[in-house]
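Prompt: Have a read of the protein record below and flag anything odd:
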Amino acid sequence: PKILLEEAKLFSDWYVEKKLSKSKLPMFKKKFKKVVNNLIKKLYLKNNILVHRDFHVSNLMMIKNEIGIIDSQDALIGNKAYDLASLIDDVRYKTSENIKNKLFNFYVKSQKKLNKKHFKNDFEIISVLRNLKIIGIFTRLAVRDNKKKYLKLVSNAWNLIKLRSRNNDKFRDLNDLLNILKKNYV
């Protein structure tokens, strides 16, 4: 849970830092931390599986008709839903909601002892937190490292956050906070 909070803080430390006035920033960060902590508390699954954390198509390779994984320096023990969220909700590739649902359902059906309701809950929370982190990372890359090409993917991350959080009560506080952010651009 601590790593999820630290990752989500990249959003408030880099993206929000550029969007809000200095007077509004401390209150936003305090509320954001509370909202993220509350979301993390709603996760059901244990952190008991190796999670790649950067699991997307670009890090998969076919080797002798088997799938190989590269770029695993960020791997750790985490939530079973993390890598599937990384793969299905990858900001680099736009896929339809229908394809996303098919992939999700294919995975769920392949897992015999999986509580689908708990897994879906965790998948949604992790996807949203991960995409907030991505917005923060891409903003940091642009500001600190002058790598502005990643900024074009920020809208994809926002769309994924909307997809997972719309009409979903567990995200009400986060959506309220993000709406305040949108209204207070300075």
Notes: Residues 116-145 form the longest helix (30 residues). The longest strand covers residues 47-51.
